[in-house]
Amino acid sequence: MDYIFTFKKYSPFSLYTLLKFWLGITIFVFPNLKKFFYIYSCKSSKKTSPLCLPISSFRLYLFYHIKMNKKIYFDNASTTKIDKRVLKKMFYYLNNNYGNYSSNNYIGLKIKKKIDKIKIKISKLLNCKKKEIIFTSGATEANNLAIKGFAFSNEKKKNFLTFNIEHKSVLNTYKKIESFGHKVFYLKAEKNGIYNVKKIKNKIKNIKIDMISILWVNNEIGVIQNVKKIGKICKNNKILLHIDGTQALGKINIDLLKNNIDFFTASAHKIHGPQGIGFLYKKKKIKICSEIQGGGQEMNLRSGTLATHQIIGLGKAIEISIREIKKNNKKIKKISKFLVKNLIKIEDTKINGSLKNRIPHNINISFGSVEGESLMLKINNISLSSGSACNSSSLEPSYVLKNIGVPIYRIHNSIRISLGKYNSIKEAKYFINKIKKSLKELRKISPLWDMYKNGISIKKFSNEI
Membrane-crossing residues (predicted)? Predict the structure, then answer.
């Protein structure tokens, strides 16, 4: 907790002096509190103890500090707190086995064996082969390598298919390859954020598609796509399937072989692992070209010295997240259910995206007549997101919400709550009380709220808002 770190800044003597001084001033200004301090700290004591006043002062300080400076992290879709077990493994390798994977000395060979073991572990957990795992700096690089690597693997111009609410690392990469003559078709998601499989079937009837890119779990609205069905369609029509599984790993069960997945990407920092490491799964038979040239690491597909400690962290994070998936999901479902139940009771409030086909970890919600950014400033001790944190802190309205038909004024009213395994019901209760109070205050000064209460439709003015 924060106060532990605060106290470490002071020596025991200076802390005692500080409390004594604070207590003296308090009792001088409010002499009647002397009796209260005594009772509070020495309820069971029959005799007065000289430690009673400092102890009571200390307790009251802690109570005030915890209550007034409570920090809550509800932004786990952006990044997660690293698991202590992961950190412990990483520190060990940073301190003891710091050799280069490419070196032929004893420590280099030791590292090589360990990294190979991690690849074997990941391949078993995801049902693939060891040689199909390529380590990258994260899912963004992995998505770039999958799309560009396949597009430029030969001189043939290819046709790609994706949806308009995919992650920016997919959409912007497709924009890039379009400038080189490749054709990309963008399908519209349904209003609940789900991809209509019929649209895919209709598109591939008329046009020969080489690869389809799908975001298994959407990072902004948390909806889950039917990858199993899409995988079967791709297999039957000899189309490669690229899945961005960044938000799916550790939250839903993943079987790469059963779902006919050809490319799969993920990052460690979304599953309580370190930032700056991820991987690309590429089916062995598929040929792609490398983006980075150098020493030929990772089967000559991703050159550069391998970050041993980060790979160790990635492996451990995947292992823990898959092993504890049931336990974590049960806990998060309970918190999510509590939050949704209480939040939708608030007047003029709406959940964005499918309520049925979604992970419990993600709640994207709009509060009428209040800017999401203003609400976040009001409750600044609670970490949330007003959109995707992957968009360089852009204040532009969410393209995901826009593309599923959410009105522009509702988009600006939206915030994203994303839960993780370290969150609790206590935090959820605190959040509900805090957000109700903040909404009440912000709506008091909002002319849009007055319009809503007077029955005036805001839709008429949505272009100006």
Answer: 13-33
